[in-house]
Amino acid sequence: MSNSHSDTIPLHASSQSDIDEIENLINSSVQSGPATVLPARPPSPPRASIPVSSSPFIQSHIPPPPLSSSSSNQKVPSVPSAPPPPPPVGNSSSIVATGFGPPPNTLTEPVWDTVKRDLSRIVSNLKLVVFPNPYREDPGKALRDWDLWGPFFFIVFLGLTLSWSASVKKSEVFAVAFALLAAGAVILTLNVLLLGGHIIFFQSLSLLGYCLFPLDIGALICMLKDNVIVKVIVVCVTLAWSSWAAYPFMSSAVNPRRKALALYPVFLMYVSVGFLIIAID
Amino acid sequence: MDLSQPIEENYANPKTCFFHVFFKASALAFYILSALFADSFVIIFVITVVLSALDFWVVKNVSGRILVGLRWWNEINDQGESTWKFECLDQESLALINPKDSWLFWWTLYLNAACWTILGIFSLVRFQADYVLVVGVCLSLGIANIIGFTKCRKDAKKKIQAFATQTIASRVSSTIQSAFSIV
C-alpha cells in the first residue's frame, strides 16, 4: 500500500497518523474479512484451469459492478485526490490479489468468464465420465464438479432425435423419452440411496445424464441410417459403452454385496432407451 | 461507480434488468401464446424449457451478482459431502446497490413462480399431462433460484452482523489503546 502515499496531498502530522490508523484498521478487518466471508471456489484439479481472476476488472463490458473488498481499501486513502481512474484500481487489485491469500471472488467477474467457465466444466465432466482416463479409479473425486447442464442438453437432444426419427406421434415420443429419462434418473438415484449407498443426489443425476452421451450418438447414427441390422449393432455398442461409463461410479457407492442391485436398474433403463431407438421408424 | 455522482433514482444496470426479465417473460409468453405459434408440442416444450433454463442461468450467474450482489452454488468437499456455498459482496458494496434493482430482482422471481403455478393448475384441471410436465420443469427451476437466493441473503445478513460486531470490537479496542497511548 506504500504506492498510495505518493498520490495523497501532504497532510498535517497528526492527521496523517490518523489516516494510517484508519488504513491499518481497514487492512486488518479486510484480512480477517475473507476468513468470515467465504473465499471463491478454488479451481478443481482435473480441469485445464481457467483461472477465476483471469481478467482484471477493467475488462468488464458490463457497467462497472460494485468493487470487491480487495479494491475498496485502495479507494479510501486516495479519496482526498481525484477519484482513481480504472487502470490503477485494476493494477492494485491484482497486486493485492497476489499479495494476500484468498483469490478475488467470482462476484465481479465478467459475464463471458462465467460462460467460458461453465462450458469448460461441461466438457471436462464429459471427458471424465465417458472416456477412459486415469481418474476413474477414484470416482467420487472425479465428478466433484457436477453440473446439470450437460445432462440437460443430452436428454433434450436424445428426445429430439427420437422425435425426429418417428414418423407418427412425434410429440408423444418426445414427452415419453424426456419423462422416462428424467424420472428414471431420479428413481435410480433414490434406489442407490435406499440401498444404503453413499452418493450425492445431484452428483448421481449428473452422472446418469452424462452417461447418456453414447446413446445420443447411437440415436443420431440410427436416425441417419435406417437399416435394422446397423441399428441393432450400433445400439448394442453404445449401450455397452454407456453401461461401462456408469459402472464404476454406481458400484463404488454401495456395499459390494448389493452392487448388482444397484447396477441392474441402470442397465435396464439404458436397454429400454436402446429399444426405443431401435423400434422407432 | 463514481462517488461524486448522487445515487441514481433509476435502474443502475438497465441491461441486466432487461435480460433478467426478458427470458422469464418470453418463456411465459411463448407458453401462453403457443396455440398461435406451433401445432407441435415438441417445439413448445423445447423452446419453453430452453428459455427457462437460460433464465435460470442468467439469474443465478449474472443478475444475482450484479443486481443484489449474491451468489450461491454447491460444492462437494474432500470427504464427499455436498455443501452449499454462499457468497456476498462486502458491506460497503452492498450499501451501493440500487434499491430499485433489488426490488425488481426479488419481485420478478416471486411473480414468475406464481405465474407458473397458476398455469400449472390450469393444465392439471384440463388433464393435460404433457403441459404439466413443461410447467413442472419451469416451476422447479424458478423455485430453485428463489430458495438459493433466499438462503444466500440470510447467510449474508448473518455474516454482516458478525463482521459488524467484530469491526466495532476492534475499533473500540484500538480507540482505547490510542486513548492510553495519549495519556
Automatic annotation (TrEMBL), chain A:
This is Protein YIP. It comes from Durio zibethinus. Residues 1-17, 25-34 have a biased composition (Polar residues). InterPro entries: Yip1/4-like (IPR045231), Yip1_dom (IPR006977). It holds the Pfam family Yip1. Its main location: Golgi. Belongs to the YIP1 family. The gene is LOC111281221. It is found in: Golgi apparatus membrane; Membrane. It comes from the Eukaryota. GO terms for cellular component: Golgi membrane; trans-Golgi network. Keywords: Membrane, Transmembrane, Transmembrane helix. It is a multi-pass membrane protein. Residues 80-89 have a biased composition (Pro residues). GO terms for biological process: endoplasmic reticulum to Golgi vesicle-mediated transport. The chain crosses the membrane at residues 148-166, 173-194, 200-221, 228-249, 261-280. Residues 68-79 have a biased composition (Low complexity). Residues 143-275 form the Yip1 domain. Residues 1-102 are annotated as: Disordered.
UniProtKB/TrEMBL annotation, chain B:
It is found in: Golgi apparatus membrane; Membrane. GO terms for biological process: protein secretion; vesicle-mediated transport. The keyword S-adenosyl-L-methionine does not apply. Keywords: Golgi apparatus, Membrane, Transmembrane, Transmembrane helix. The chain crosses the membrane at residues 28-58, 103-125, 131-150. Pfam families: DUF846. One of its GO terms (cellular component) is Golgi membrane. Golgi membrane protein involved in vesicular trafficking. Belongs to the TVP23 family. PANTHER family: GOLGI APPARATUS MEMBRANE PROTEIN TVP23. This is Golgi apparatus membrane protein TVP23. It comes from Durio zibethinus (Durian).
